[in-house]
Amino acid sequence: MNSFQFLVAVTASLGGLLFGYECGVMNVVLVMDAFRIFFKFHNWNGDALDENGKKIKNDTQEKWYRDLKEADNKAMLEGVITSSFVLGALCGALMATYLGEKFGRQRTIMIGACIFTCGAIIQGLSARTWIMIAIGRLITGLSIGCNGVLCPTYISEVAPAKIRGTLSSCYQLMTTFGIIVAAIINSIVWYYTNIKPEGLGKPRSNIWEEVPNFEWRFALLFQVVPGLGLAILMSFLPKSPRWLCSKDRDEEAAEVLAKLNATSTSDSVVQEELKAIQEDVAATRAAGSSSVGELFSPVIRRRTFITFLMQLFQQWTGINVIMYYQSQIYGEIGFTKFMSTVVLPIINNFVNFISTFPGMWGIERLGRKTLLIIGSLMMMVFHISTWAFSTQTYRGKMWQYFAVASIFLMVFSFAWTWGPVPWVYQAEVFPLRVRVKGSAVGTVSNFLNNWIIAFVGPALMKAWSTKTFLLFAAACLLAWIYSQFYVIESKGLNLEEMDAKMAGKA
Q1: CB 178 within 8 A of CB 17
Q2: Distances (CA, A) of 229 to 11, 29, 116, 223
Q3: From residue 110, how far is each of 81, 113, 225, 233 by CA, in Å?
Q4: pLDDT tens column, 194-238
Q5: CA 21 → CA 214, 225, 252, 319, distances in Å?
Q6: Radius of gyration of the chain (CA)
Q7: How many CB atoms lie within 10 A of CB 457?
Q8: For residues 168 and 428, is the Cβ–Cβ distance under 8 A?
Q9: pTM of the predicted model, to two decimals?
């Protein structure tokens, strides 16, 4: 791998950073007092809490936090605002099929970054209605869904076969990096705006009156920075050589391949890659234009079902309930507001980020299927242990730390296995003629199930508390059965060899 290939893969992976920041920012924003009061999740009559989040019993106690009162519709509004982003992502994944084939992967990723920026501005400037912020999040979701299909596909089409899985994993790595960036920036904002704010202990005549809204507006508007950054950087990257050949622009494709391989267009490596792509394109054309129905043809349908189910199980591992609502989960276990909102989310997000690196190593050495099997079993064990320890927290702090350690280990188990594998797998298993459509099936499955999880998550946690982890443990058991007996290994094959194996020709 040369430096230009690496630069192309990392830049395209910034689409994952947008996804990560959008996920990470909501965990903190949802527990910002100003956000909760502004959108009427809670009200505040002026009462205060102490350092441990307990009610103030006398005037001599030091006042630390606002004592907010939860509204009856809080869980529903929280679910709608959070899940509207995922609903947009679902629509964006469907748009990607058409846009990616018509305008190309590189140009469509740029368009998606611009759409993301517009959505971030709408969120940050939202009026006092949940409808406006939900629309803003739906628009940013359109971008994330579109780029969730095209960024891994683009990387897989410019990467050498022997390191394609590693470079495609950069998308997941940047997603985890975006989450930790959001956690650090917005935890600092929360610390300076929610600890010992003005007005503690002073009665308020209007319990729904706004407090200063800088904190959550800044957190949401900051998304403009990575959005514009991706749009600008993508303008300097080449178009996919495989897409160029599909549009009869073979000379341009040869030039891109030469640049990617740091050699001339006449070099044998470039000519061999170009010939393989041209043959695949010719075979595709000979079979006629592609349709969605072709994804369910006897030759392709197994990889379609594998891809759909892989992304379904990725979401039902419960990872996004933890990432979206982790501050509230830590509070439920018994930690203080400061620990739940600042310390533990940053540690967890750092674990998520660091754990992606073993996945980038293991995806080529151990294989996609092996990682899925290992990850399913590990996550099932740690979901069960999280629930078990959480039932013992009344015995003391030690059990609280055991429970949170289990959550961290579950996130580790996910981040190096089920985190990167589905994105790599769906980008490499489909033939060129239906590659974008096939990848879109996986991404649609991801965001559809993500939307369900985000919408019902608050209600589940309110009704079942930590018993919710048992539901996800059961889902991980099903994910293991699926991985063990249905998934086909794709390690080490180039995109053309993949077609032969999946079609039963090799």
Answers
A1: yes
A2: 10, 23, 11, 10
A3: 26, 5, 14, 9
A4: 999 999 989 999 999 999 999 999 999 999 999 999 999 999 888
A5: 18, 11, 35, 15
A6: 24
A7: 24
A8: yes
A9: 0.80
